[in-house]
Structures
1.
Amino acid sequence: MRVPVTKSARWLARAAVPAPGGYPKEARAVPLKDQAYEIIRHHIIICRFAPGEKLNEAQVAESLGLSRMPVRHALARLRLEGLVTIRPRKGIEVRPIDPVELLQIIEARTVNECHAVRLAAARFTAEDTAAIDDVLRHTEAALERHDTEALMLLDKSFHAIIAQASGNTVFLDILGNLHDRAVRFWFISLEQQTHQGSVVQEHRAIRDALVAHDAEAAEAAMAHHIAAFRRNVMLLIGQ
């Protein structure tokens, strides 16, 4: 599947559940601590390691087929990102879902991403159109097979294309950070099949406005998309 995601994300899509005999050849070139980080993070994002779940370093290492040291490095990195909590003598816990944090992320996304999409509308190129259309084609295929993990990666790619097209590297960094913090919420939202179809429609509306270089329509479509995400996730977590 050719989508504009990082190399680690491409092999991670295949290696999230290690196959018998170890990781794919592409993954073996990645340092073990980075392998451990990417895979544990992915498990947290897709709630395979559930919010609030206690993790045992030795058991995680065994399940990944890795030694404890790279797993320890990975967990320390994930602690800095706020995805796990490490307490002396109490162990490791996956950070619970926090509705307050979600609302703060959405507020920041609304301000930054709506402006970024306006910039992208003025600068959207034929190459950008080809890239976003490729993502949408793969999204339709993932939707048909109800592949939530693929949909999550494709959703991230869709928004990354827009951030890149804005031509503002600061927005690229800000939105990348916000999306990384929101991925668990995305997965919860995308698990609902009724919402999956709506997301595709919302993405197409954003795409059409970008291709037409209509900044106002692009901003309105993005605001609608983010608001729909907020409503869906807050309903699912009972807020």
Note: The chain has a mean pLDDT of 83.
2.
Amino acid sequence: MKIPDGFRPRRVLVLRLRGLGDVVLASAVVDALRRAYPGVAIDFLSAAPAKALLETDPRLDGVFLLGDERATDGHVQIGSKPDAIRWMRRRRSDLMVDLFSNPLTALLSAFSGARYRVGLARRWRAIAYNIRVPRFQGDPAHDFRYAREVQLDFLRNAGIRWQGDARAEVFLETADREFAGEALQTLGYRSGAPFAAVLPAGSWESKRWTAEGFAAVGRYLAERLGQPTLVVWGPPERQDAESIASSLGEKARLAPPTTLRQMAALLGQPTALVATDCLGRHLSVVQGVATVGIFSTTDPRSWTPREGTHRAVRGGPREGYATLRDLPPDPVIEQVQALLEDGVLDSPRPSF
């Protein structure tokens, strides 16, 4: 079953729990729905950590976040699973798209009250949906679609069509951009001149590279670009970031503490970013920054866009490394060199 021709929903609900990087990429689904159904109201259901990413998106009419405490902040509500069900049924969506399709979201979908419910044709949870879409395209062992395209294929496979490119975006406030500009000026960066950043992040241990590796790459970038390498970090990475900046001395600048959106604003400024497979890389990608991604257990083909200037290195068992921490700097520096040869330095940089 697919969406009938001529169907025009009044309200659409998108579900995407967990994975802030996936929430960023799911913004392309919101764009596609607006293109497919001009004037439609769009709601989004996620988890509390996504608040900073969703509350500033002007395309969203309502946002519900699963969390431990009840709260209301403008068009954003936080609450329990029963609260979410009441919120969904009160909103009366005509179409619901469950981009996660795990047992919890299948349950929420089943109780959403939506006329059409799109989700994965996957085990028992498929009964929650009346429009079931496949998880893989062809042979699962050879399905390496970019993660944004995987989410957009929920719509395509459901029969939803739109004109133009559906873009993923991060929506920042003026204060976030002003923070980034003032921070870079304070750190001594020249407005409009190329510089690079490194981000030693990783949501779990298998995704983390070494501070020594990032320092070697940061040194090369500083020497090549003529400005210090910016070391960006979140609270879990503070120790590694400080170690990298300390070892590089004048060839690095340590970014100040940031909120999530302030970090996103900083990550939209460099000529290039070197990072592991993490939220920060997605935030740079959707803002048009060239990237080199460092991967281990996750496949870079599924997490690297085909368009734009992006490179990837994999350092896992298939490549002969016991863990990503055994990956030396040289393969990463080689991809950085290739990235710069792709013409990254010829691209104009934003002024701050």
Note: The CA atoms of residues 96 and 117 lie 5 Å apart.
